[in-house]
Amino acid sequence: MIPGERKLSTAVTELLRHPGTMVLGDCVIAVAAYLMAFLIRSLLPIPFTRELMPSDRLLQIKHYFWLFLALQPVFLFFLDTYHDIRFKRIRDIVWSVSGATGLQVLILVSAYFFTGNLSFPRTIFPIYWALNTAGVVGWRCLIRRSFRGSRRRVLIVGDGPLAERLIDELRESPEIGLEVVGIISNVLPQGESLGPYRVLGGRSEIATLVGTHRVEELILTPEEDSWKDRLIDSISNINSGVRISLVPSIYEILIGRLDHFNIRDIPLIKVVGKPFDPMGAFSRRLRDVLVSAGMIVLLSPLWLVIALAIKLSDRGPVLYIQNRVGRWGRPFPLIKFRTMPAGFEDTTGPVLVKADEPRLTPLGRFLRNSRIDETPQFINVLEGSMSLVGPRPDRPEFVEQFTKEIHGYNERHKVKPGITGLAQVRGYYHSDPGIKLKYDLAYIYNSSLMLDFKILLETVRIVFRRQAV
């Protein structure tokens, strides 16, 4: 393939993989399937129908194009057909898509029925469902195919424990599409191996090695226990909102969103301060109050049923109130539905929940998997100790442990904890606390109402799919 053709092919591939392209394609498929259903019904005999539909029937009835164009991406999103398409099996995609399009048809049938549009030909709906399902599944197969054989050549810079862990993850996940060319290290000699990969040289040789090995991506892994991490531990203990600045290197200038000022002609970057500006904090609090009050009213009937079920199952208390660490390290009582037997920690003391937690009651396992046990925390949000979005609050015993083991852990306490957060929608329920901290800090210092909205949407999708996180 000549260079011009290769660039065109790459551009088409990147366009196919863009989420906006997927959504646009789904909407086009919905319209095409709808019109095709009318064409098939007017040209081909369908079982259990008496005669062909007149070809002008399409123009004689009212259509709700806006409704199925809105429902198509919404249901496909909530049934998880946009996320990590290339990692899913075809049969899982078919199952999810058929469910999403089926729910869409049920809503459409209800809309036509309740608006009195009874002259609409009912046989259109099953034909539309079949065509729409086939089209969306085929569209996703095309997108999956665009990933085939596409691998980016990568150099890993670093040789510490995090580099080793990254190597293991990449080796076990070929579907990610990264091909590790080698390692850059100033500690290990050239030619020595780190896992299955050789050290190609030191940091001063990066530019040469990138050209020699046609590298498309560099992954920088931080040094373990660096002076910067130890400094953050000291900074994190300051809870007065004092501004902390630095004279940036070129590296600091290139990363992140900058809030900078200068002392005469020396530029400085503000790296630690109040994560939310006053207006942003006010808008978040207003949103939290309105949403949590609405959810409490909406969920109250469900809470009564759950309370009765818990009480009848083992006669124990309905709610489990536990001390958690909130903003600035202040403890607060977090409210949950009880999912384990009463007094389950009387003999063991505080224990981290396991992936296959044996202490959960049968009802508690259902409440935990569906996240219903967390819904009373809307009360915490309404009274102000929590927010809808933020780092998940930990127990004081674990905070004390993690603060000693993980540099910068106290940084997450500069904002209110949340019912959900970036670590919950991007990581897993049992992810390492150090990994969760990176997500939490990424959220805190890149926060926005739009990011909050995306996290809340992702949370709804995960709960809807009962996905383990």
Largest β sheet strand count, sense and barrel closure? 5 strands, mixed
Helix and strand content put the structural class at alpha/beta
- Described by the principal axes of the CA atoms, the overall outline is globular
* Helix-strand sequence: HHHHHEHEEEHEHEHEEHEEHHEHEHHH
Summarize model confidence as the mean pLDDT.
Answer: 80
Q: Give the N-terminus to C-terminus distance in angstroms.
A: 43 Å
β-sheet strand percentage = 5-15%
What is the CA-based Rg, rounded?
A: 27 Å
Which regions contain 5 or more consecutive residues with pLDDT less than 50? 1-6, 262-266
Write up what this structure looks like.
The chain has 469 residues and is an alpha/beta fold. It has four domains: 3-147, no CATH class; 152-220, Rossmann fold (3-Layer(aba) Sandwich), CATH 3.40.50.720; 227-272, no CATH class; 278-465, no CATH class. It has helices at residues 3-17, 19-43, 65-78, 90-114, 124-147, 161-172, 206-212, 227-236, 250-254, 278-314, 362-369, 377-383, 396-405, 422-426, 433-444, 449-465, and strands at 152-157, 178-184, 193-194, 197-201, 217-220, 244-246, 260-263, 266-272, 319-325, 331-337, 387-389, 418-420. Strand 11 (387-389), helix 13 and strand 12 (418-420) form a beta-alpha-beta unit. The longest helix is centred in the middle third of the chain and has 37 residues, at 278-314. The chain is globular and about 80 Å long. The two termini are 43 Å apart.
